Amino acid sequence: MSAGKKRNVVVIGGGSGLPVILRPLRDCNVEVTAVVTVADDGGSSGVIRNFMNIVPPGDIRNALVSLSLLPDDFLKIFQYRFESSDEFFKNHALGNLIIAAMTEMSGDIFGAVQKLGRFMMISGKVYPVATDPLVLHAAFTDGTQGSGEHEITVAHKVIERLSITTEKGEQPTPTSEVLLAIDHADIIVFGPGSLYTSILPNLVIPSVGKAVKASPAKKVYIANIMTQKGETDHYTDASHIKAIYHNVTDGIIDYVLTNTAIVPEDYIDFQKWDEISTQVKVDLAEDKKLGVTPITGDFLELRDQGAFHDGQKIAEKLLQILDGKV
């Protein structure tokens, strides 16, 4: 590596978890690439997806905002969500509409996102994992099946196997830029985010899973703070890793970062955050059996009566892994 060359950090995920570490990584001396899921079919993203047949823009929007160097006042406008009383625009985020408009203008979601990234002065890159909207499919342990991220989430059932297709039922094709970023990565980070609807939807694309397996990069899974009702009840950090291996392939994780700071139950508003259940526990022995190095510590941020990752602490630990200090 030449002197002064930035290391390449690829972060794979989606949802509200991905931005937690993108912003602090943006301010580090690394080249950040966010690989974002395009399987969301709920909320504003789902409506735009259905009406315009484009990839859902919400997770892409959040990643762009997290990496942008523009003033916060502009970013607040981009993130503004119309009130429910606005019948035509209700619940749409302005940024989602802008991404949809630029996609329609160019006919190319990937090019539209790259152009918008330049407009927003992002430090890094944001790549939708594919240019077609994808459909998530789940086989549940009770023998039933579900399709679509929203349907799978609200089912609150234990998932046996996950797969993903285009809306035509074909095998998805990731962009060449995504595969190149994975190939050139010095470290690949999975999450933080929902295991089955933010992280795995990227990895179960066969060519993405194979590219991650083949990459010489260090691979880090950020375990969730809390389990998700129905989906990951009673999961330890090792249980999450087993699910990734079961759905993708063995041996694609080198490290797991797990928070061990206690989440006070009397702080959490379980009605507001109704998808979470109990704190994810670390299973050191099982982690090591799986060939994964566990890294534990206080990665907890309590806010808004919820439990979240402290992005700054996570970013610092990732840099230590990059530098071989862990």
TrEMBL record:
Listed GO biological process terms: regulation of cell shape
Gene Ontology, cellular component aspect: cytoplasm
Keyword entries, A-Z: Cytoplasm
GO MF annotations, alphabetized: LPPG:FO 2-phospho-L-lactate transferase activity
Main subcellular localisation: cytoplasm
Record Pfam families: CofD
Protein name in UniProt: Putative gluconeogenesis factor
Similarity comment text for this entry: Belongs to the gluconeogenesis factor family.
InterPro entries the UniProt entry points to: CofD (IPR002882), CofD-like_dom_sf (IPR038136), Gluconeogen_factor (IPR010119)
CDD domains per record: YvcK_like (cd07187)
Function, in words: Required for morphogenesis under gluconeogenic growth conditions.
Localization, UniProt: Cytoplasm
Organism per entry: Oenococcus kitaharae DSM 17330
Keyword DNA damage: no
This protein's record includes keyword Cytoplasm: yes
Domain of life: Bacteria
